[in-house]
Write the structure tokens for this entry.
Amino acid sequence: MAQKKSENSIRRLRRTHLPAGTIELAKYLIGKTLVHDTGAGRVSGRIVETEAYVVGDAAGHAFRGLTPRNKSLFLDHGHAYVYRAYGLHFLANVSSEVRGVGAGVLIRAVEPLDGIDLMRLRRPQASLIDLARGPGRLAEAMGIGPQHDGLDLCAAGPLWLGDSVRPAGEVGTSVRIGISQETHRLLRFYEKGSPYVSGPKRLRA
């Protein structure tokens, strides 16, 4: 079962805590906390799955250079990049390199902590395990949308990164999910044994 934490028990991460490197950041974020403070209350989740989209990665949105759509990927590491995928779901990412270099980490799944009732209002048909298991479900459950694109996740604001509420378990590595380019690269990271990790069973072992 998810552990319910008090609203004041999560320590905000500073940029100096975050490694400035895409693969390093993707691994580092496993076990850390994603927090959204809303008017209705706090929603938070323990990050259990990420994917790295490194510099020069043909599967990444920064591959063809800076555009109005992807400009948040070129900010200092630790900023939000939120976009709509296939016209359906918003996905939450974290910029991962120094300013001017485009790359990011997709947050694929979280273990719900605070605000589970609020998550269930947004996803009323979902079980606890499925509330935020997958990047589109995560953004929907946590109320993350285009208004959060470009936010500094290390500064005072509604959407931010927090430290671990408990240590991460063993971290597994696999190919990424749902992409058509650079499919061989082992750039997906997840907490082994967590039921909140998305994807097929063969990629969760």
